[in-house]
Amino acid sequence: MAERLIKTQLEHLKREYFCRNSQAEESAEKENQVATRIQSWYRACRVRAYISHLHKKAVIIQKIWRGFTARARVRQMVKAAYFIMKMNFYDEMAVRIQRRWRGFFVRKYIHSFYARKSYMEGLVIKNELVRRQLDELEDLQKRERDCVEMVKQQTAKLYQAHRLHHLISTKQCPGVFNSPFRTAPHEIELLLRRVKYQPPTKLVPRGRVSLLGIPGPSAPSFPETHGSPWNKSTRNCTSRPTLPPINKKKQQLSSDRTRQPSPPPQATPDPRQFRPPISCPPALHHHQV
Amino acid sequence: MSQRQIIQAFEQYQKSRMQFVQTVADMATRQQNIELLQKAGVISMLRPLLLDVVPSIQQTAALALGRLAENNDNLAEAVVREDILPPLVQSLASQNRFYKKAAAFVLRAIAKHSPELSQAVVSCGGVNALVLCLEDFDPGVREAAAWALGFIARHNASLSQLVVDAGAAPLLMQCLQEPEIALKRIAASSLSDICKHSLELAQTVVDTGAIAHLARMILNPDAKLKRQVFSALSQISKHSVSLAEMIVDAEIFPAAMACLRDPDDYVRKNVITLMREVVKHTPELAQMIVNCGGLVTVIDYLDDSRGNLRLPGVMMLGYVAAHSENLAMAVILSKGVPQLALCLSEESEQHIKVAIVWSLGQIGHHTPEHARAVATAGLLPKLLQLYMDASSSEDLQAKSKKALKSILQKCTDVPLLEPLLYEAPSNILKHVVCQFSKVLPKDSKARRLFVTSGGLKKVQEIDAEAGSPLQEYINAINGCFPEEIVRYYSPGYSEVLLKRLESYQPA
Fold first, then answer.
1. How many domains does chain B have?
2. CB of A265 within 8 Å of any CB in chain B?
């Protein structure tokens, strides 16, 4: 009995095993496919979960990182903007200072109104001063010229008086210039009385020598006076001042012409140099500073 | 024939030659004889006598030739044509001083007429011979040579360059230092003639140290010397700034102003010319002269002198005022403007008037102050009159228009502008009205004055094309006044009123 049971069980088992295997074999394919599908689905879920987990984490990291860099950049931008604001302010203030300074400097030193005004006033004063000085100078020069003129005229008069010495009036006979009908003698008569007669000598050089020893204005110079280039004694050097000849020798040499006594005690002047008894008017020497 | 008779014959011939030459020389001093002498063929007669054995005949013949050629350029050309110059120049090197003087005289008399004759003298080697004479001992010979060189150099720059290239400049400088006054005069005059042409020539002369010597001679009492010295200095200074500065550095200026009171006219004229040439270059130089009191001396000079002598003074004031506004104000404060107005009314020559008008323009064109100073002297109507006068030359008209315009553009004084409203032609009127349109909106007193003096009426009568700048100015002026007043003064207003009267019906 047990053996039959075991045999039937065995048979049952064999049949069961066989059925199951044949069933399994029949549904093996389908079950395989299904299993594959379930597995793939599960795997996909797992992977998706994994990926989404990764994504989330990545997003978190990126979020934090980007916030960090952005904040750093903003901080930098704020610093820069602050710096620029400060610089603008400084620039503005510097411009104000420079403007004030330049205005002050230009108005005080370069285009100074007061300096110009005082310059103009000073100029007017200086003009007046220069004018006065020039007037004085002109006056002085005019007086000098007048004095020289006067001296020349005096010299000429004395020379005339010297030539007309013979017209002096004597005790017996009144001269031409001392007419009895006049109240007082003429000035030429007075001059004639004053002039000392000197005999002319041969050794005095020709040419007009005036009182001051400077040759007269008509000093010969080629070719204004073209007096005889064939005359060998033409004077060439025109501005040499001539010295008066020495008296003693002159008297001796002219002794054969006119017997003159020994020279009078006072120095006899050169006959050509008429030392006039009248001196220059005091005004000449007054301003000779 | 005996020896005595032979000698007698020769002596007689010599005497007659001598007499002929002396007579010709004496006759040549008179102008009316020269033509007759030329017709008689005197030059061909004198030519062989120049090469005569006897020195005195040679000298007299040369003297006669010189006198003949001096005043008459036909004769001078005849002398050149007859080939007299080459033997004359050759003998210049060898003969005695009288002959040298006479020969130099002849060269001078020929060179003075024209550049071609001077060129003829130069091409015979005259310049080198004359420069040799400049080294001679005798001052008369040097004077004659310097005079001849001066006349040669006078004509143009190339001849001056030839004279300088022959080495004349240092020798003339030595002549300047000699004691003889006549030699100094001639040397200064020749230097002045050389320098006047160009900068390089002036620079060459200055390099020999001319300025110091000329500066020393300023205080010499001789008037003619002073003329030439100042003329030389002004010719030097006119070419460039550096030369003018060198002259100023020689401390001439305060001393030169003393010479401005010299009785000789030409000394004064040359001093003023020197001041003008210096002032022309830069504002600093002008400032320096103004600071020495130069302006007042110029104005006194203008007061004293007449005619052509005034020209450099007037131009000097113009140059000073042209540099800057300060200097123009200095001119105004030194009472330059009334003096210029006086000169303008006194002078009748056109070129002097042109110079005065130009100077006034330079003075008045800087700021309203300056324009007012010029206008208060009553010069604006005068300038207008000179512009419109048909007998003024073109130059005078152009310059007075320019001066008037430039002064008007700065003039802001209404009473002074008004007289111009009545007489001015339209191109000047434009500026006058423009000034009114600028001034009237700002100044109420001026507006009242404008109305009461009849200016507004005149403005209304001006006929201008619509849209032209004149019309815009007129509109601007009309805008300054209330409408009733403008209408009151507009022409034909009385007719308008009368028409209204006709159409009016009493109620």
1. 1
2. no
